[in-house]
C-alpha cells in the first residue's frame, strides 16, 4: 500500500500472477471528496509493485478521473497472458482399417447371398505409406502481470510402433510397408505387414496343421485335433471345434466355437465370434461374442462383451482385466458361474520383479563407484597404478557401463508397466437384462455371491466394497 496525502492506493496480485487489482483507501475522511490522483502517481505505484505487463489503460484513466469508483473494493488494473498448453501428437493411419462391424455378406448377381464372401483383407503394397506421426507442440508461453514468463504444459508425444515387415524414416515420423501383404495390429498396437495364407475350404488331412508367419484365412471349418498358428490374424468363415488356434493378432470365427472341452483359442489382440460352447478362449485385449458363452473358460486382458440380441453367459469361469458385459448372466437353475474382473496379476508381478532387479543394479553400481573411487585416490596419491590395479580399473569401468545400460532399460520398462497399471479403468460387471442367483463375483480380493435376481445392474467396487447401481 502506498500513501499519498489523504489517500492510499493498495495493489493486490493474484496467486497465479495473471491479474492485479487496485483499490483506493481514504485516510482522511474529512477531505475524502477532494481526492486528486495523477497518472504518474498511479504508474509509480504499479512500478513499485513490479506490475509491468497487461496494464489496462482505461482503468488507470478512470482512477485518475473518477477515484470514488475504486473505494468499494479492488478493481482489475492489469491482466496477464495465460500460457496455452501444447497439443498432443497423433498417429494418422493412411490405409483402410478393417471395421468388423461394417462387414456385410456379398450379394450375387442372381440375388442370392454368399455368406462366405465377407472377409475383406486390407492389403497394402511394398513401399506404401502406412502411418504418419504428427509431433506434439510445446505450447505457447504466457506472461504474468509482473512480466515473468509462464511456462506452458507441453503436449504428449505420440509414438510410432513398428512391428514386422515395416520400416520408419530417420525422423520416426513415417511408417512404410516393407512387403506386399496385409496390415495387422498386434501386441501394444504394433503395426505389422503380413502375407496371407488362404484355405479354400475346411482344414483337413489334405491341409494338415498350419504354422504361418502371416495371416491365415480359412473359408471353412477347423475340426477337432487340428492346429492353426499365425503371427498375424486368423479368420475362420465356418466353425471351430476342439482345435488349437493361436494368433499374434486377432481371431475371428464366423460360425462359433463348439469345443467339447478340447483345444484352445488364443489371440494376442481380440477374439470375435458368435458363440462359445465348452471352449477355452484367451485374448490379450477383448473377447467379443454376439450370442452366448456357455460352460467355457474365457480370459481377456481388458473386456469380455456378450451383449448381442441374446447375449447370454451361463456356467464356466470368465476373467477380464476391466469389464464383463452381457444381457443375461446365469439362469433360473442357478448354474454355477464365476466372474473375475479388475486385476492384471502378470503386470504387477513384473513390476515387483523389475523393482527388485533395479535395487540389485543400483547396489552394484554403488559398489562399482566405490571401487573406482578408491583406485582414483590411489592414482592421485602415487601418480600411477600397478598393472593389476589398472586391469581392475578397466574392468570396473566396463562393468559400470553395462550396469548403467541395464538400469536404463529396466527404468524404461518400469515406466511402461506403471503407465499400463495407471491406465486401468475401474473394473465393472454390467448385466443389461437379468443376473440370476448362482454367480460368484470376484473383484481382486473381494468376493460376492449372488443369491437373488438383479435386473439391469452394474457391479463395481466403491470404498472397498462391491456395490450395485441401476443401468439406464
From TrEMBL:
The chain positions of domain Flagellar Assembly Protein A N-terminal region read 10-187
Pfam annotation, one family: FapA
**Organism domain of life:** Bacteria
InterPro entries attached here? FapA, FapA_b_solenoid, FapA_N, MinC_C_sf
PANTHER family assigned to the protein according to its UniProt record, in alphabetical order? POLYMERASE-RELATED (PTHR38032), RNA-BINDING PROTEIN KHPB N-TERMINAL DOMAIN-CONTAINING PROTEIN (PTHR38032:SF1)
Name-wise, this protein is FapA family protein
Q: Which organism is it from?
A: Brevibacillus ruminantium
Amino acid at each position: 500500500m502506498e500513501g499519498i496525502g489523504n489517500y492510499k492506493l493498495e495493489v493486490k496480485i493474484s496467486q497465479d500472477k495473471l491479474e492485479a487489482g487496485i483499490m483506493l483507501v481514504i485516510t482522511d475522511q474529512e477531505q475524502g471528496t477532494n481526492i486528486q490522483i495523477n497518472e504518474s502517481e498511479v504508474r509509480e505505484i504499479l512500478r513499485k509493485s513490479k506490475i509491468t505487463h497487461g496494464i489496462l489503460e482505461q482503468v488507470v484513466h478512470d482512477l485518475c478521473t473518477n477515484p470514488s469508483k475504486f473505494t468499494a473494493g479492488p478493481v482489475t488494473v492489469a491482466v496477464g497472458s495465460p500460457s496455452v498448453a501444447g497439443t498432443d501428437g497423433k498417429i494418422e493411419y493412411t490405409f483402410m482399417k478393417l471395421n468388423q462391424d461394417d462387414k456385410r455378406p456379398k450379394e450375387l448377381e442372381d440375388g442370392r447371398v454368399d455368406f462366405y464372401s465377407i472377409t475383406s483383407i486390407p492389403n497394402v503394397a511394398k513401399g506404401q505409406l502406412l502411418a504418419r506421426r504428427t509431433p506434439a507442440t510445446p505450447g505457447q508461453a504466457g506472461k504474468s502481470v509482473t512480466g515473468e514468463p509462464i511456462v506452458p504444459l507441453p503436449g504428449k508425444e505420440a509414438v510410432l510402433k513398428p512391428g514386422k515387415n515395416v520400416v520408419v524414416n530417420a525422423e520416426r515420423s513415417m511408417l512404410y510397408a516393407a512387403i506386399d501383404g496385409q496390415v495387422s495390429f498386434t501386441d501394444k498396437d504394433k503395426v505389422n505387414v503380413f502375407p496371407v495364407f488362404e484355405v479354400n475350404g475346411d482344414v483337413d488331412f489334405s491341409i494338415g496343421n498350419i504354422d504361418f508367419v502371416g495371416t491365415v484365412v480359412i473359408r471353412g471349418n477347423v475340426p477337432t485335433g487340428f492346429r492353426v498358428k499365425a503371427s498375424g490374424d486368423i479368420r475362420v468363415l465356418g466353425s471351430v471345434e476342439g482345435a488349437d488356434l493361436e494368433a499374434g493378432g486377432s481371431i475371428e470365427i464366423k460360425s462359433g466355437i463348439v469345443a467339447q472341452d478340447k483345444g484352445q483359442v488364443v489371440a494376442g489382440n481380440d477374439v470375435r465370434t458368435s458363440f462359445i460352447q465348452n471352449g477355452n478362449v484367451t485374448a490379450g485385449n477383448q473377447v467379443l461374442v454376439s450370442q452366448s458363452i456357455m460352460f467355457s473358460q474365457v480370459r481377456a486382458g481388458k473386456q469380455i462383451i456378450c451383449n448381442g440380441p441374446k447375449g447370454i453367459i451361463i456356467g464356466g469361469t470368465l476373467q477380464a482385466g476391466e469389464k464383463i458385459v452381457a444381457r443375461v448372466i446365469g439362469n433360473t437353475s442357478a448354474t454355477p458361474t464365476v466372474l473375475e474382473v479388475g486385476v492384471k496379476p502378470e503386470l504387477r508381478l513384473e513390476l515387483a520383479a523389475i523393482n527388485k532387479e533395479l535395487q540389485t543394479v543400483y547396489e552394484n553400481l554403488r559398489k562399482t563407484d566405490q571401487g573406482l573411487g578408491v583406485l582414483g585416490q590411489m592414482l592421485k596419491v602415487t601418480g600411477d597404478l600397478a598393472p593389476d590395479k589398472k586391469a581392475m580399473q578397466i574392468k570396473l569401468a566396463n562393468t559400470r557401463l553395462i550396469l548403467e545400460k541395464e538400469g536404463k532399460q529396466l527404468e524404461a520398462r518400469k515406466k511402461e508397466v506403471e503407465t499400463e497399471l495407471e491406465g486401468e479403468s475401474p473394473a465393472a460387471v454390467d448385466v443389461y437384462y437379468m443376473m440370476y442367483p448362482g454367480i460368484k463375483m470376484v473383484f481382486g480380493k473381494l468376493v460376492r455371491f449372488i443369491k437373488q435376481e438383479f435386473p439391469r445392474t452394474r457391479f463395481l467396487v466403491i470404498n472397498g466394497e462391491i456395490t450395485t447401481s441401476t443401468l439406464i
